[in-house]
Amino acid sequence: MVRVLVVDDHPVVRDGLIGVLGAADGIEVVGEAAGGHEAVDLVGQRDPDVVLMDLRMADGSGVEAIRRLRERDRRRPRVLVLTTYDTDRDIRGAMQAGADGYLLKDVRSADLVRAVRDLADGRPVLVPAALAALTRRGTDPVLSDREAGVLRLVADGLTNRAIATRLGIGEATVKTHLLHVYTKLEVTDRASAVRRAWEQGLV
User: Fold this and answer.
1) 145-199 has which CATH code?
2) Are 50 and 120 in contact (CB under 8 A)?
3) What are the pLDDT digits (tens) for 136-168?
């Protein structure tokens, strides 16, 4: 029996998903949550095998809930994202956070049931848009090798001077590379640049 927790901030959507999954053989819906914070708490109480997770909810991002579930010390459920969003940024963000599968809400009921079973058995579940997003850079900004290298060192906590020494370039050059990174990623500081690049799979 596959134990499923349904997470979506729209009651009508939750009811529909519970109806579809609850009627399927070998699947038991063990709980529902209206947001990511509630979902993380319920996972500890209900011990689901699969969490069906929306990405954008009233209490914040499903991505953060996925990340928190991945960090659990105890058995971690598999997370299947079910959302209306199919941009590269959304897909990469969810998969980088630790999602195990990605589906869109226009999926047929029979395919959703099959996906839950497949994921519970350890088989990957990705819509074509997700596969494409993970194998291309698409329209996301592309960092040069040097820019990506500088940003990785920033992520490691190095100062501009330390980065310059490590790479054998001038400190002014490091600053120039970072300005290019900020422009491409549309951010204004080091921490935001690292986070944005990680979400988009650029470093």
Assistant:
1) 1.10.10.10
2) yes
3) 554 556 678 888 889 889 888 899 999 999 999
Q: 2-135 is classed in which CATH architecture?
A: 3-Layer(aba) Sandwich (3.40)
Domain boundaries, the chain: 2-135, 145-199
pLDDT tens digits along 70-117: 887 677 899 999 999 888 778 888 888 888 889 999 999 999 999 999
Question: Do 2-135 and 145-199 come out as alike in CATH topology?
Answer: no
